[in-house]
Amino acid sequence: QVQLVESGGGLVQAGGSLRPSCAASGRTLSSHALGWFRQAPGKERECVAAISRSGSSTHYADSAKGRFTISRDNAKNTVDLQMNSLKPEDTAVYYCAARTMSPFANGNLYYTSVPRYDYWGQGTQVTVSS
């Protein structure tokens, strides 16, 4: 079992930056592919960024490209999402997620769909004011 806890959300003006962080306990994240998702009221949960177990492959939603950066620190058992140039439409609850990977699986794969992930944090609110 992996327990994920997000922190670092908050209220920021448009154009500002935030860096939500997700800390894991229970098991090491080094054996997991990771992702950051968000869900705005009335909308489906969507993947904004994903990173492979190896860390060598990353994916960003079109809305996040050039503004968001996902990074993992296996030594600290954390995954962060640096968000710059924030827009009001980035307002949502942000969730981190982890997918257990077999040691024999390709470590360069990332995943962008909700059902692919095994563990979820409780979410952190990000609000961007105009």
C-alpha geometry: globular
What share of the residues does DSSP label as strand, in percent? Answer: over 45%
Distance between the termini: 40 Å
Radius of gyration: 14 Å
Largest sheet: 7 strands, mixed
Mean model confidence by pLDDT: 96
β-strand number: 11
Q: State the order of secondary-structure elements, H for helix, E for strand.
A: EEEEEEEEEEE
Helix content: under 10%
Given as residue ranges, the uncertain stretches (5+ residues, pLDDT < 50) are: none
Structural class comes to mainly beta
Count of DSSP helices? Answer: 0
Q: How would you describe this structure to a colleague?
A:
By secondary structure, the chain is an all-beta fold. Helices cover 0% and strands 46% of the residues. The strands form two sheets. Strands 2, 4, 5, 6, 9, 10 and 11 form a seven-stranded mixed β-sheet that branches. A hairpin with a 4-residue loop joins strand 7 and strand 8.
Quickly list its features.
single chain, 130 residues, mainly beta, 7-stranded mixed beta sheet, 4-stranded antiparallel beta sheet, 46% strand, globular
Give a short synopsis of this structure:
By secondary structure, this protein is mainly beta. It has no helices and eleven strands.
